[in-house]
Amino acid sequence: MRRSSGFDAVLGFMQALWALEQGLHRASRAMLDATGVTGPQRLVLLVVERLGPIAPGRLAHVLHLHPASVTRLARTMEERSFLRRRRHPRDRRQVLLDLAPRGSRIVARRTGTLEGTVRSVLVRASRAEVSAAVRLITRIAGRLGAE
């Protein structure tokens, strides 16, 4: 990423955020071609695998998404046999999302993923660097109403 020397700290940081957003978007499209799922869809699968079976509302909370967005995402992923919906065992009115076998195969994949790219950078960063980056991004997201 090139940074113009005339940028102040705010514009420089925003430029880095936009470069990250664009990189995530490009990598997500490439991942779709390679694996059949986008970056956000893979994130859903990873969270469901780690926390699931999970209620759609809780999934929305964990991902910082509107419940309607999770509903659309889950429906698409169910139609493509990545997720399956089942009744909650104690409350038959609620549903839980769980991995379907096809979703489990996607989760097992380790190469060509967004989180693999992030992991390769994080292992070379200090805990302090990672903590500071998370704190800054979380504060900005909170001010933008994304948290």
Descriptive report:
- There is one protein chain.
- With 147 residues, the chain is mostly helical.
- The chain has one domain (10-143): Winged helix-like DNA-binding domain superfamily/Winged helix DNA-binding domain (Arc Repressor Mutant, subunit A).
- Helices cover 65% and strands 7% of the residues.
- The chain has 7 helices and 2 strands.
- The chain has a two-stranded antiparallel sheet with strand order 1-2.
- β1 and β2 form a beta hairpin.
- The two termini are 27 Å apart.
- The mean pLDDT is 90.
Brief synopsis:
The protein is mainly alpha-helical. It has helices at residues 9-35, 39-51, 56-63, 67-79, 101-108, 114-122, 127-143; strands at residues 83-87, 95-99.
Relevant terms:
147 residues; Arc Repressor Mutant, subunit A; mainly alpha; 65% helix; single chain; globular; 7 helices
Topology, pairings included?
Blueprint: H1 9-35, H2 39-51, H3 56-63, H4 67-79, E1 83-87, E2 95-99, H5 101-108, H6 114-122, H7 127-143
Antiparallel strand pairs: 1-2
Helix pairs in contact: 2-5, 3-4
